[in-house]
Amino acid sequence: QAHLVESGGGSVQAGGSLRLSCEGAGFTSSIHCLAWFRQVPGKERERVARIDSEGEPLYAASVKGRFTISRDNAKNTQYLQMSSLKPEDTAMYYCAAARACYEWASDWDYWGQGTQVTVSL
Predict the structure, then answer these.
(1) What is the mean pLDDT of residues 33-50?
(2) Which positions ≥6 away from 25 have C-beta within 8 Å?
């Protein structure tokens, strides 16, 4: 059964860094795109970064220059390196995988369980 398992969340002070990891296994369809989303209570899940099978990344404007997405295909793992963190980055972060690089969360095929990131002043 396909699954994604995340690790690396936690609490950090503003300006600090965290790295999230997400290991996948058991996919029954070809995975072209990997991504990280985040969600705060009462708001929709938003995509913060994605990387396609060619290794081409794309970032939301709010994280560009601070976050870096990467993938290690040999380990079936994707990463999100987060630097210069701000309190507004506080959210539950989810990794996702899909057959294409969809814009909306509802179109993605596979999801991790989520990991909390909390940034304090």
Answers:
(1) 97
(2) 2, 3, 76
CA Rg, the chain, in Å?
13
Q: What is the dihedral of CA 24, 12, 64, 116, to 10 degrees?
A: 40
Tell me whether residue 83 is exposed, middle or buried, using C-beta atoms within 10 angstroms of its C-beta: 0 to 12, 13 to 18, 19 or more: middle
Q: What is the largest CA-CA distance in the chain?
A: 43
Alpha carbons 9 and 19: distance in angstroms, whole number: 7
Taking only the tens place, the pLDDT of each residue in 43-87 is 999 999 999 999 999 999 999 999 999 999 899 999 999 999 999
Confidence check: pLDDT of 28 > 80: no
Antiparallel, parallel or unpaired: β 33-39 and 91-98: antiparallel
